[in-house]
Structure formats: structure tokens, C-alpha cells
Automatic annotation (TrEMBL):
Protein name: LytR family transcriptional regulator
Keywords: Membrane, Transmembrane, Transmembrane helix
Transmembrane annotation, as ranges: 23-47
Gene3D superfamilies linked to this entry: 3.30.70.2390
Domain LytR/CpsA/Psr regulator C-terminal: 80-166
Organism (species): Bifidobacterium avesanii
Pfam families, per database record: LytR_C (PF13399)
InterPro entries: LytR/CpsA/Psr_C (IPR027381)
Domain of life of the source: Bacteria
């Protein structure tokens, strides 16, 4: 092998290394730019803006029914509120723990189960029908993260679907949920009779 051939091979190897370094540097630069753009979008609220906006809206952006006309604002006795708790998260045992606490507070608990969905639920949601609006308001006042969602059920069972937003119930001594703390309409609520295209209720045994 001649010196010229050795030289050509060395130059070829050097060129290969330089090209590979340039490629790695280019990829790293692109990744860095994308990361910076995403960070700026999050910082200025472009990404996640809708979710943040919903958190500041009454009932987390879900249209709620108003309390019935003539309702006196008195909280419903927990023993008259029938609750089923469904776990919409991947935290095993969460529904049972919440159900047990509701039972300790006097609620008529029925069953616990996993929420029938392939995806994890983000926002805790309380599902109820038009015949259990004061009951849903009473139950909902225990939560800091739950949206009230009326569906098409006609009975009085209330479903609590726990989402990843759930942390804990309000303390039982919280004055906002005391017996003498009246229920009030959720801001922006509408008359239940005017609500159309209600979601279909989760399958359940009717409770009247």
C-alpha cells in the first residue's frame, strides 16, 4: 500500500468523523430549539391554556343545572344521598378509600368499581340526573376538584368518577359544608328543563 493510499484513507476517516459530528450537532441543535419553543409556549399559556381557563370557570367549564325553583337551600341529609364511586385513575384502591370516607360521613354508599374507560380521567366528575340536583350539590360541596355533570338518568343514584385531579375531600369541620351552610346555585347555571343533548348515564341499577 502506498503512502498516498494511507493518506487518502486517513482523510476519508477524518471526513467521516467530521460529518458525523456535524450531524450530531445539528440534531442536538434542533432538539434544543424545539424544547425552547415548547417552554415559551407553556410559559405564555399557549399550551395548556384551555385547561387552565377551565379551572377558573364556574364548575370547571361544565354547564350545571340550577337548583329547583323554590328550593330552600337546605342541605340534603347525607343518608338520603345514594352514591356509587368509580375509579377513573390508575391508583388502585382510591375509589374504596373515598367510598369508605363518604360512608363515615353518613352517605348511603352503594358500590365501588373502575370507571369503564380506556383512558385515565383527569377531572373528577359527579354524574346525576334531574331528580337529584340538590343531592348532587350537597355531595359536590365536599370536593374541591369535581365538576357537576347532569346526564339523562331519571333515578336518584349519583356517580362520583374520581380523576387524577382528586386529592382529598374537604375536612368534615370545614364551615363551608356545615349543616347550616346553605346551598347556592353554581354561577352560570341554567334551568334543568332547558338542558338538551345530555350525556348518556353510565350503566347502573336505578335507585329511587
Amino acid at each position: 500500500m502506498t503512502d498516498s493510499q494511507h493518506y487518502d484513507e486517513r482523510e476519508a476517516r477524518k471526513a467521516f468523523v467530521r460529518n458525523r459530528q456535524r450531524l450530531v450537532f445539528s440534531i442536538a441543535s434542533v432538539v434544543l430549539v424545539v424544547a425552547m419553543v415548547l417552554a415559551l409556549l407553556v410559559f405564555y399559556g399557549v399550551i395548556g391554556k384551555s385547561r387552565k381557563a377551565d379551572q377558573t370557570k364556574p364548575n370547571f367549564g361544565v354547564t350545571a343545572p340550577c337548583l329547583p325553583d323554590g328550593f330552600d337551600g337546605k342541605r340534603i341529609d347525607p343518608s338520603q344521598i345514594h352514591v356509587r364511586t368509580l375509579n377513573g385513575t390508575d391508583s388502585s384502591g382510591l375509589a374504596r378509600a373515598v367510598q369508605d370516607e363518604l360512608e363515615n360521613r353518613g352517605y348511603a354508599t352503594t358500590a365501588v368499581a373502575d370507571y369503564p374507560s380506556d383512558t385515565v380521567v383527569s377531572r373528577t366528575t359527579i354524574y346525576f340526573g334531574a331528580n337529584a340536583i340538590p343531592e348532587a350539590y350537597t355531595l359536590g360541596s365536599l370536593f374541591t376538584d369535581a365538576a357537576l355533570q347532569m346526564d339523562d338518568r331519571q333515578d336518584k343514584l349519583i356517580d362520583v368518577v374520581l380523576g387524577t385531579s382528586f386529592y382529598d375531600l374537604k375536612d368534615s369541620t370545614d364551615p363551608s359544608i356545615s349543616d347550616d351552610s346553605p346551598l347556592g346555585n353554581i354561577s352560570g347555571c341554567v334551568a334543568a328543563a332547558s338542558m338538551q343533548n345530555l350525556p348518556q348515564a353510565i350503566q347502573h341499577d336505578a335507585v329511587n
